[in-house]
Amino acid sequence: MPASPLLLTSTALRRIETDAAATLPPGTLMDRAARSAAARIATSWPSGAVVVLCGPGNNGGDGLVLARMLHEAGRHVKVWALPASDAGRPEDAQRAWDALPAGLLQSGEPVWPVGNAGTEGAGGAGGFGQVESAAGGFGENDSAAGDPGLRSEALSAALRDAASAAEIDTDAGAALDATAGDVTPTEVTADDVTADDVTAADLAGDVASREPVERGDTVSTDLLADRSDADLLADPSDSNSLFAEGDPADDLSNEPLSTGTLFDAPLLDQGRITDGLLLDGDVPRGVIVDALFGIGLTRPLDAQAQAWITWANAQPVARLAIDVPSGLNGDTGAAQDACVQATHTLTFIADKPGLHTRAGSDVAGTIEVDDLQLAAFVDASAEAGLGAGLGAGLGVDAKADAKANADVGLEIGLNIGANAGAGDDVTAAAPSSTDLPTNDIGHLIRKADVPSLFQSRKNDTHKGSYGTLAVLAGAPGMTGAALLASRAALLTGAGKIFVALADTPPLSLPCDPMHPELMVRDAAGVLDAADALGVDTWVAGCGLGTDDAAKGWLTRVLQERPDANVVLDADALTLLGGDQVMQAAFRQRKGIKVLTPHPLEASRLLGSDTHAVQADRIAAACAIAARYGAWVVLKGSGTIVCSPSGAWRINTSGNPGLATAGTGDVLSGMLGALLAQGLLPEEAVAGGVWLHGAAADRLVEQGIGPIGLSASEVAQAARWIRNQG
Ligand SMILES: NC(=O)C1=CN([C@@H]2O[C@H](COP(=O)(O)OP(=O)(O)OC[C@H]3O[C@@H](n4cnc5c(N)ncnc54)[C@H](O)[C@@H]3O)[C@@H](O)[C@H]2O)[C@@H](O)CC1
Ligand SMILES: Nc1ncnc2c1ncn2[C@@H]1O[C@H](COP(=O)(O)OP(=O)(O)O)[C@@H](O)[C@H]1O
Ligand SMILES: [K+]
């Protein structure tokens, strides 16, 4: 399922939520969100335990409803909830709290449910759920765990009574399920058996056979019967210990295993223990649901939330983030020190910018969007954004995009509909209009969004058809920067390229031996002849330097030939940021203007600091675009592209292989080449950024990176991608 290309900030989302909620019965959206998550879990983690961590707000409410739904479906669910805030829970979340079935909520710190990674099937009745309830929970939270000796007796009796081949089923509904014997859930009751017992039994099976034991595996009861209670069960001196001293399993760790610590790294490294006691190769089963905080995270996490997140991140199971990984700002992609490292994020109503820029792509895992059947509202928002200028500058059909999103959402909605409850019979009335501020809606940049990169060339063309580019760059000692940009322009298809070296004759490099197609001259020489040469696009700044000579050449670029396109990078940005004469000249230019700052250069253009830029990359890119009247490419993980009118997009391609010197030079050369070839700015800028990242992705696929990927290779890979179509 492709991710929605539409991105909404929390302001836009809240507006939609409010509008929609006003037309729906209370709790409908939370119900839909929870049902969506339940469907996702049923598909991806059909067995195994589900630990739901819930926060104080509606994100926590989603988690609480989800926990109830999963429990009712017979899943083995544990809930840990942060305390409500002083103001109490929001209405929907409070309703979810009140409806949480008894026994699911755990006290203390979260632990992985030991001894049971149960699955559906029992519907909660007569199953392990009852055992849990009676025992007050598993593991360290098991305050009523009882006397280990008693548990030992009960379990041993159960095992001995079992027929020669007994199935140890740690599943819900059958604490011990003897397929060929006498042990049934009714015989082994909550009073007789605790989770610790089953844990011990499973581990004992493993120890006895030295083979991994999985839930459902058949284990010889002879082996089990051969072992004494002392071998099988907890050391009576330590109610949490699962092994008596000298037990072979103890060899696996220097410390006695205790409940809740079954994911000890040494054990995992040996592939011995997964999924809360179940030995299941390298693939633990079960999932932790992160429903701590969503788009309402407004301040630093407190110690308890941080500890829970740290715990969740340390468990070798999947982590499904509800809406947004907790600790991540859904608008900006800024992550707190403690942030859920999700393997999957299921996000609601629309995709969020913070999932795609800065730390977002590091912590979100696989992103899925469910519009909660609010396509009409999303559609109207996109339309309103379009009316306010959004998308117009990008040449993006935002309405069509929104429709596509709606279709995606509906498809998900229909799937969910198969499990639908009462709330889903209600269709929200379509909104009449919304008027979101322009920069609360953006888009992703994907291959499909930049088709003109792949348009075939007409036969009846010549080198003049593909533009004449001049690259003002490469002061002495930085010649390579000029070559990187110029070669990238060549490989991206520019018709003619002049390298205007930031130097005076005689040049130390009269020609590029690798690419003699490039016409290398001194900067003044190219500037003097620019009219005659027909330069229609300038790329300026790569290794240009910031001395007076550089300043003079750049001023000429900005003041002369105002119809030519300019792409400014690196030193040109530093010079521009500090020179009002240049800024005035820049603003007055009629050609297409592109600025490609990394965060430090962006801060110079804004007179702020890098921290401020990175704290809200979209806002920074939009601010630069507005101040300079230019297209802005704010580089980094999740590069932001912003049009002069404030329409922003986030690139989806690229990887940390690009974090190497010279890749920015390559990007500016590519952007210049695409403009020189006459692509519309929205496709040249967004397309160049996407192509640059996609080239790096291809190199990684080929094993040429991320480590050691070099800038020159990016240009070559980009050429290949363009020609493949
Ligand atoms: N309202 C709606 O219509 C819907 C909301 N949904 C869910 O609700 C979420 C938004 O709910 P909320 O607005 O309640 O926000 P959250 O649940 O994300 O968190 C806000 C709550 O956490 C507190 N908080 C914020 N930062 C904190 C911190 N650092 N430490 C401790 N407490 C902190 C706030 O005071 C507030 O109580 C969405 O992300 C989504 O998961 C979904 O159910 C879909 C529908
Ligand atoms: N971690 C990353 N993930 C994705 N892209 C990255 C990453 N690090 C750097 N890049 C990209 O690499 C390029 C680096 O540009 P820049 O910092 O100007 O380098 P240089 O000046 O050395 O050429 C930019 O396009 C940037 O977006
Ligand atoms: K969350």
TrEMBL record:
<dbReference type="GO" id="GO:0110051">
    <property type="term" value="P:metabolite repair"/>
</dbReference>
<feature type="binding site">
    <location>
        <position position="59"/>
    </location>
    <ligand>
        <name>K(+)</name>
    </ligand>
</feature>
<dbReference type="InterPro" id="IPR000631">
    <property type="entry name" value="CARKD"/>
</dbReference>
<keyword id="KW-0413">Isomerase</keyword>
<protein>
    <recommendedName>
        <fullName>Multifunctional fusion protein</fullName>
        <ecNumber>4.2.1.136</ecNumber>
        <ecNumber>5.1.99.6</ecNumber>
    </recommendedName>
</protein>
<feature type="binding site">
    <location>
        <position position="664"/>
    </location>
    <ligand>
        <name>AMP</name>
    </ligand>
</feature>
<keyword id="KW-0547">Nucleotide-binding</keyword>
<dbReference type="GO" id="GO:0016301">
    <property type="term" value="F:kinase activity"/>
</dbReference>
<comment type="subunit">
    <text>Homotetramer.</text>
</comment>
<keyword id="KW-0808">Transferase</keyword>
<keyword id="KW-0418">Kinase</keyword>
<keyword id="KW-0521">NADP</keyword>
<feature type="binding site">
    <location>
        <begin position="635"/>
        <end position="639"/>
    </location>
    <ligand>
        <name>AMP</name>
    </ligand>
</feature>
<dbReference type="GO" id="GO:0052856">
    <property type="term" value="F:NAD(P)HX epimerase activity"/>
</dbReference>
<feature type="domain" description="YjeF C-terminal">
    <location>
        <begin position="446"/>
        <end position="725"/>
    </location>
</feature>
<feature type="compositionally biased region" description="Low complexity">
    <location>
        <begin position="231"/>
        <end position="242"/>
    </location>
</feature>
<dbReference type="Pfam" id="PF03853">
    <property type="entry name" value="YjeF_N"/>
</dbReference>
<feature type="domain" description="YjeF N-terminal">
    <location>
        <begin position="13"/>
        <end position="380"/>
    </location>
</feature>
<keyword id="KW-0520">NAD</keyword>
<dbReference type="InterPro" id="IPR029056">
    <property type="entry name" value="Ribokinase-like"/>
</dbReference>
<dbReference type="InterPro" id="IPR004443">
    <property type="entry name" value="YjeF_N_dom"/>
</dbReference>
<keyword id="KW-0479">Metal-binding</keyword>
<feature type="binding site">
    <location>
        <position position="323"/>
    </location>
    <ligand>
        <name>(6S)-NADPHX</name>
    </ligand>
</feature>
<dbReference type="GO" id="GO:0005524">
    <property type="term" value="F:ATP binding"/>
</dbReference>
<dbReference type="GO" id="GO:0046872">
    <property type="term" value="F:metal ion binding"/>
</dbReference>
<dbReference type="InterPro" id="IPR017953">
    <property type="entry name" value="Carbohydrate_kinase_pred_CS"/>
</dbReference>
<keyword id="KW-0630">Potassium</keyword>
<keyword id="KW-0456">Lyase</keyword>
<dbReference type="InterPro" id="IPR036652">
    <property type="entry name" value="YjeF_N_dom_sf"/>
</dbReference>
<feature type="region of interest" description="Disordered">
    <location>
        <begin position="203"/>
        <end position="222"/>
    </location>
</feature>
<keyword id="KW-0067">ATP-binding</keyword>
<dbReference type="GO" id="GO:0046496">
    <property type="term" value="P:nicotinamide nucleotide metabolic process"/>
</dbReference>
<comment type="similarity">
    <text>Belongs to the NnrE/AIBP family.</text>
</comment>
<feature type="binding site">
    <location>
        <position position="665"/>
    </location>
    <ligand>
        <name>(6S)-NADPHX</name>
    </ligand>
</feature>
<feature type="region of interest" description="Disordered">
    <location>
        <begin position="227"/>
        <end position="248"/>
    </location>
</feature>
<feature type="compositionally biased region" description="Basic and acidic residues">
    <location>
        <begin position="208"/>
        <end position="217"/>
    </location>
</feature>
<dbReference type="GO" id="GO:0052855">
    <property type="term" value="F:ADP-dependent NAD(P)H-hydrate dehydratase activity"/>
</dbReference>
<feature type="binding site">
    <location>
        <position position="326"/>
    </location>
    <ligand>
        <name>K(+)</name>
    </ligand>
</feature>
<comment type="function">
    <text>Catalyzes the dehydration of the S-form of NAD(P)HX at the expense of ADP, which is converted to AMP. Together with NAD(P)HX epimerase, which catalyzes the epimerization of the S- and R-forms, the enzyme allows the repair of both epimers of NAD(P)HX, a damaged form of NAD(P)H that is a result of enzymatic or heat-dependent hydration.</text>
</comment>
<comment type="function">
    <text>Bifunctional enzyme that catalyzes the epimerization of the S- and R-forms of NAD(P)HX and the dehydration of the S-form of NAD(P)HX at the expense of ADP, which is converted to AMP. This allows the repair of both epimers of NAD(P)HX, a damaged form of NAD(P)H that is a result of enzymatic or heat-dependent hydration.</text>
</comment>
<feature type="binding site">
    <location>
        <position position="290"/>
    </location>
    <ligand>
        <name>K(+)</name>
    </ligand>
</feature>
<feature type="binding site">
    <location>
        <position position="543"/>
    </location>
    <ligand>
        <name>(6S)-NADPHX</name>
    </ligand>
</feature>
